[in-house]
């Protein structure tokens, strides 16, 4: 069944000129290819905003959904009633959080692109009530802005668009405004570096890391040369996406890095699976990030029946082991 966001995109973009969208998509692919911060507003006109919504929003929505699913599995989304989507563009996080948090009552999307905000509002009109009722407002993330208070702030695929020296200010601004902060970036070395800097800043300020990290000390993955912590989210490509971008596959795998941190202690996982598990007869090899600050392989054999049964079910990005932290009651 098509996702409601796919339906909304199909409806909102039904009359758009496919040729113009295709050209705008090609321009966005070019801008995002390097991963370097763009020097000017990328979503600078209505067609660019539509191309972004058609070609990137389903992927950022999928990454957010996966990250929120991990947090939800730990019980770390309880008590969220309000959302602030900072640099929210066309509202990917709004849709994802509304799905992951049924108790969500209100949401605000802030962005520097008037065209992204206008399209996001239009798309949201096709969404469930809390999505349709969201507020949309301009923001300039050039200095440390004062942001409205919310239970959760999401900064998704935004830090990488800001000059490096601006990012800490924005992390501080969202931490001032919200009790929980979710940062998501592309699953590239650059994207991971932006997430790591946010993670370390929040941890240094006394915030608690919920996911994916099992501990707030130095990141053991960052210490490994040529490695970076990232995960993947699979999404079906819509007919619209295939029309704009071509490609034979019916799906794509969005690689992303993320961190969810909380001002108050929340449950977190004991360990995190960092790769697709390796399967051999009677044996599963898990590459783990552990709460003792180490990362490395762990072999689970059939002799440990319970662990072996669980190891055969986990995948890259899943929590592993007994959860830690207060009121932890969601073993995986
Ligand atoms: C790659 S899009 C991400 C949109 C959305 N968060 C998502 O995950 O799909 C980056 C967004 O950041 C916004 N942005 C970039 N620099 C900004 C700035 N200095 N002030 C306000 N918004 C900015 C852009 O307008 C754009 O909507």
UniProtKB/TrEMBL annotation:
Sorted alphabetically, the keyword list is:
Iron, Iron-sulfur, Metal-binding, Methyltransferase, Ribonucleoprotein, Ribosomal protein, Transferase, Transit peptide
Q: Which GO terms describe its cellular component?
A: small ribosomal subunit
InterPro entries with a match to the protein in the record: Mt_RNA_Methyltransferase, Ribosomal_Rsm22-like, SAM-dependent_MTases_sf
| A GO molecular-function descriptor | structural constituent of ribosome
Question: What sections of the protein cross the membrane?
Answer: none
Listed GO biological process terms: methylation; translation
* Name of this chain's protein: Ribosomal protein RSM22 (Predicted rRNA methylase)
């Amino acid at each position: 069944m098509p996702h409601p966001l796919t339906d909304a995109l199909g409806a909102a973009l039904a009359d758009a000129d496919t040729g113009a969208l295709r050209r705008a998509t090609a321009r966005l692919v070019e801008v995002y290819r390097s991963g370097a911060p763009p020097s000017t507003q990328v979503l600078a006109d209505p067609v660019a905003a539509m191309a972004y919504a058609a070609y990137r929003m389903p992927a950022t929505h999928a990454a957010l959904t996966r990250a929120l699913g991990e947090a939800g599995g730990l019980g770390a989304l309880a008590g969220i009633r309000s959302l602030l989507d900072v640099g929210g563009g066309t509202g990917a996080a709004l849709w994802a959080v509304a799905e992951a948090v049924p108790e969500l009552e209100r949401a605000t999307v802030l962005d520097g692109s008037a065209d992204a905000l206008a399209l996001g509002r239009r798309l949201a009109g096709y969404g469930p009530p809390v999505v349709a009722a969201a507020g949309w407002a301009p923001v300039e993330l050039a200095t440390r802005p004062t942001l409205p208070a919310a239970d959760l702030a999401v900064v998704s695929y935004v830090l990488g668009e800001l000059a490096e020296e601006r990012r800490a200010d924005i992390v501080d601004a969202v931490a001032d405004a919200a009790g929980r902060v979710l940062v998501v970036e592309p699953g590239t070395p650059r994207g991971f570096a932006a997430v790591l800097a946010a993670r370390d800043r929040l941890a240094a300020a006394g915030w608690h890391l919920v996911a994916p990290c099992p501990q707030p000390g130095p990141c053991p993955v960052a210490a490994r040369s040529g490695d970076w912590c990232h995960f993947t989210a699979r999404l079906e490509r819509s007919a619209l996406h295939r029309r704009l971008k071509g490609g034979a596959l019916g799906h794509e795998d969005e690689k992303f890095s993320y961190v969810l941190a909380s001002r108050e202690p929340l449950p977190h996982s004991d360990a995190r699976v960092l790769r697709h598990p390796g399967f051999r007869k009677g044996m599963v090899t898990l590459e783990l990030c552990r709460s003792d600050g180490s990362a490395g392989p762990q072999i689970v054999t059939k002799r440990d029946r319970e662990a072996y049964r669980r190891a055969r079910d986990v995948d890259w990005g899943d929590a592993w082991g007994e959860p830690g932290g207060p009121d932890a009651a969601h073993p995986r």
